[in-house]
């Protein structure tokens, strides 16, 4: 631990205090401040004081602090553009919970500097209230990026998948089944019988013993038509 004796200056001369009390600098402080400064520069928060409070609160709890990843583009405008990468960051901060309170999710959304009108639009389309089913919210957020249902589900797989260098993104078929059914219901133009036929075919003819579905299974198989 580094320790500095207190002193005062008068007309250029250093005057030692009347006590021998020392100021002790915790050894972890320099690195902590260094990481905080780098995170603030990388994130460019619109409200630095609020962000700093969120940052140190997360660190004290052992949670992931609200820091932009190096691969994330810092927006030149007031709002960041929603991307699959930002949705993946958001998903990581939800930390595997199925239900999240609207205030907490709205705060996470704000920390990432995402458009408030898009958040409100997703809330309205999903008819969400205080308690939000995270996967449903994520599905609708992904649909704002995907032109088709297949594209939307591809983005969802990329966000949810924990596979990075081992091939195409993949998720449990049960999760895919839930999300495809939900998106089709929201879309309103795909019959329940068509959804059922596609899911039955995928489960019986495509899914392997691991119970996982890969992006290629529904984007490159000519017999799988999700629309």
Automatic annotation (TrEMBL):
InterPro entries: ROP_DD. CDD domains: DD_ROP. GO terms for cellular component: sperm cytoplasmic droplet; sperm principal piece. Keywords: Cell projection, Cilium, Flagellum, Phosphoprotein, Ubl conjugation. Transmembrane segments: none annotated. GO terms for biological process: cilium organization; flagellated sperm motility; protein localization to cilium; sperm capacitation. It is found in: Cell projection, Cilium, Flagellum. Important for male fertility. With ROPN1L, involved in fibrous sheath integrity and sperm motility, plays a role in PKA-dependent signaling processes required for spermatozoa capacitation. Belongs to the ropporin family. This is Rhophilin associated tail protein 1 like. It comes from Pelodiscus sinensis.
């Amino acid at each position: 631990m580094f320790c500095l004796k207190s002193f005062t200056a008068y007309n250029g001369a250093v005057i030692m205090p009347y006590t021998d009390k020392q100021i002790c600098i915790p050894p972890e402080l320099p690195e902590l401040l260094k990481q905080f400064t780098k995170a603030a520069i990388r994130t460019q928060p619109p409200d630095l004081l609020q962000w700093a409070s969120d940052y140190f609160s997360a660190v004290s709890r052992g949670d992931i602090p609200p820091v932009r990843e190096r691969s994330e583009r810092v927006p030149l405008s007031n709002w960041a553009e929603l991307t699959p990468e930002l949705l993946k960051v958001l998903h990581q901060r939800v930390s595997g919970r199925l239900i999240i309170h609207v205030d907490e999710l709205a705060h996470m959304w704000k920390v990432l500097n995402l458009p408030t009108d898009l958040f409100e639009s997703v809330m309205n389309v999903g008819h969400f209230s205080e308690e939000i089913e995270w996967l449903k919210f994520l599905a609708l957020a992904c649909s704002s990026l995907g032109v088709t249902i297949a594209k939307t589900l591809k983005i969802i797989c990329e966000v949810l998948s924990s596979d990075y260098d081992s091939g195409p993104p993949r998720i449990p078929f049960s999760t895919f089944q839930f999300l495809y059914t939900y998106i089709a219901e929201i879309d309103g133009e795909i019959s329940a019988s068509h959804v059922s036929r596609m899911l039955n075919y995928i489960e019986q003819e495509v899914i392997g013993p691991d119970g996982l579905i890969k992006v290629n299974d529904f984007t490159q198989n000519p017999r799988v038509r999700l629309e």
